[in-house]
Design a protein that fits this description.
Elements: H1 3-12, H2 21-31, H3 34-39, H4 42-45, H5 53-75, H6 83-94, E1 101-107, E2 113-121, H7 131-140, E3 145-151, H8 161-174, E4 180-187, E5 192-194
Parallel strand pairs: 3-4
Antiparallel strand pairs: 1-2, 1-3, 4-5
Helix pairs in contact: 1-2, 5-6, 7-8
């Protein structure tokens, strides 16, 4: 099924008495693909003539449902043994965001997911990370391990010097509590970089 047909059917729920073909084509022309439309910020969607609150609700519902399905696939498995599923989930959740997010996956003793939370949101090239808040939340959840994830809206997943320094500070803060930082993954639009894979931790 081509992207425009899927998009037409999604939009039909918002415009049940109207042909949605032209609107679907307008959205695809502006954003490029079904995935880009679903991930587009609300303000940019509203720039397209004919898009209103009802259409945005339907589009964001699709994204929320897709992420829920992907998260469910990693809930019951040890994260380190379902690594590709974890990376795919993080990529779907963050790769197309236009501002940086810092996400923490808190894990139990068996490396199963306890909680997946966005700890902070920032600008196009920076998000504040407060080490104290990271540790406070890990202790509240009785986490035994953490997987750190953030995105680079620029598209390049290569870690910056600030990323490396911040990660090492979190590792040092976690050590006295017996909390292990398994990895820090930087997600770009087309790929990702693993601190562990790069030998940075």
């Amino acid at each position: 099924m081509p992207d425009y047909e899927i998009l037409e059917m999604v939009l039909f729920r918002a415009f049940q008495r109207r042909d949605t073909k032209d609107l679907a084509r307008l959205l695809l022309k502006k954003f490029g693909s079904f995935a880009e439309v679903i991930n587009a910020p609300e303000q940019r969607l509203l720039e397209v003539k004919g898009v209103g609150t009802a259409a945005i609700v339907e589009l964001k519902l699709i994204k929320a449902a897709a992420l829920r399905l992907m998260r469910t696939s990693i809930l019951e498995k040890p994260v380190l043994s379902s690594w590709n599923d974890v990376i795919n989930y993080c990529h779907a959740a963050m790769a197309k965001e236009e501002t940086e997010q810092f996400r923490i996956l808190s894990l139990d003793k068996k490396n199963r997911l306890i909680k997946d939370e966005v700890q902070s949101r920032g600008t196009v090239d920076h998000t504040p990370v407060y080490i104290r808040e990271v540790m406070k939340r890990a202790l509240e959840l009785s986490a035994s391990a953490l997987l750190l994830v953030h995105n680079h809206p620029s598209g390049d997943p290569h870690p910056s010097r600030a990323d490396i320094d911040m990660t090492r500070r979190i590792i040092s803060a976690a050590e006295p509590f017996g909390i292990v930082v398994h990895d820090h993954v930087v997600v770009g639009r087309e790929g990702h970089a693993s601190f562990k894979g790069l030998g940075l931790i």
